[in-house]
Amino acid sequence: MRAGLEADVTAAHVLEARELSLGYDGRRVVDGLDLVLPAGRVTVLVGANACGKSTVLRGLARLLHPTGGAALLDGKVIHEQPTRAVAKVLGLLPQSPTAPDGITVADLVGRGRHPHQGWLRRWSADDDLAVAEALRSTGTLDLAERAVDELSGGQRQRVWIAMALAQQTDVLLLDEPTTFLDVAHQIEVLDLLADLNRRRGTTVVVVLHDLNLAARYADHLVALKHGRLVAQGDPREVVTDALVQDVFGMRCQVVTDPVSGTPMVVPVGRHHAGRATELADRGDRAEVPA
Q: Which of 120, 195, 232, 250 has the highest CB neighbour count under 10 A?
């Protein structure tokens, strides 16, 4: 769990996979996954490329129909629930979203409010406030009147995150939300998601490639390999030298992050293998250079 976490957990919705199998064109990618995502916490999915992280997220968000088992929301099969009802509870930022040509930032972010509209519920001041707050939170308020297709990759990514935030769901799934962002903006986005979790008790589920950032921000870390669950739990218990070797096929030494106190993975390449072995033999892991 993140140091200093003082979340007021209010989210009551439970999202889970029960013997969930998923695939594409007859090729199985996820095989018999059993997973319960802790309500009101930040869960991060990690694993090597093509291990099934994004596929799991798509299955949980009812974008991909299972070939076996089921994804459940509050104990009910999510694919059998009405689309609008699910959208009021669960928001998703996919890996490569596309926007209509010429749409402005404000209009795109406003689409996050569509699940709250209906025959008897039209656009209101609350919707305006939700959109404005989402734009401010992501630092995109000054881009509101710009066309999305005129923005840089990093700006577009923050606008998509703003749309997901404007939806104001109790469960938020994000597939690699730090893509296209420089390091400073990656930290800003993850801080934003952590703040959302602390303030509203939002259940946040994120796919990340950076294992060190995952360990910093996750309350619950899930490691996948070839579509199967390898380990899950507190990052301090999950992230080990052996786990990284097994899941990523990479030699490393796991030390303590001097800033967050969470595990920090230090890769061991061929040119530093001798030095790493020497330090390991001495038991002096803290001296491994970051």
A: 232
Which pTM does this prediction carry? 0.84
Residues 6+ apart with CB under 8 A from 21: 28, 30, 31, 32, 33, 66, 67, 68, 69
Please name the helix (run of DSSP H) or strand (run of DSSP E) that holds residue 88, with its range, or none: helix 83-89
For the chain, strand residue ranges (E) read: 15-24, 27-37, 42-46, 68-73, 76-77, 90-93, 171-175, 203-207, 220-225, 228-233, 252-256, 263-267
Residue 236: C-alpha distances to residues 2, 188, 256 (Å):
10, 23, 9
Judge contact between 53 and 224, C-beta under 8 A: yes
Report the C-alpha gap between 245 and 153 in whole angstroms: 32
Q: How many CA atoms lie within 13 A of 154 on its CB side?
A: 10
The values of phi and psi at residue 102, to 5°, are: 80, -5
pLDDT per residue as tens digits for the range 165-212 = 998 899 999 999 988 888 988 998 899 899 989 988 999 999 999 999
Q: Tokens at residue 148, please? A: 């999305």
C-alpha 211/C-alpha 200 separation (Å) is 26
**Do the strands 203-207 and 171-175 form a parallel or antiparallel pair, or are they unpaired?**
parallel
Domains and CATH numbers, the chain: 15-240 (3.40.50.300), 251-290 (no CATH)
